[in-house]
Write a structure and sequence with these properties.
Layout (H helix, E strand, L loop, with lengths): L2 H19 L3 H5 L2 E8 L5 E3 L1 H14 L4 E13 L2 E11 L12 E10 L2 E11 L6 H12 L4
Parallel strand pairs: 1-6
Antiparallel strand pairs: 1-2, 3-4, 4-5, 5-6
Amino acid sequence: MNSSVSNEVQALYQQLVDAWNNRSACAMANLFTEEGESIGFDGSHSIGREEIFSHLKPIFEDHPTATYVSKVKSVRFLGSDIAMVRAIAGMVPPGQSDLNPKVNTHHTLVVVSNEGNWRIQLFQNTPAQFHGRPELVEQMTEELRELLK
């Protein structure tokens, strides 16, 4: 795939991160296909824009959510109209300026294009706790901390 299409796919991921950081359930849900799926950090599973919105709205209304700091690690095209994005992300708790390594995560997205309009089919947010391997937690945290500078 050409780099402009890869940039469009990466921009879609950045819109997802921005919508979270702006605490906008509507903006996040609208990035998904009509039947898109979201699997949250805690394992919660939402299917469809309406359900994704309904899941996120009370989170943003009732909890001071942390801000994502993220880095795209790869974009792999599985066809001309489907791609997989893999990213790492950390979170800066409200009122703080550093990452909380306990909530580092891997983000995986499957995105599809319908007539040049990229949307998220699947977003999975998987904790990156690396049980028994604290050096990997620290390595990821340091990689993300570079983005805070």
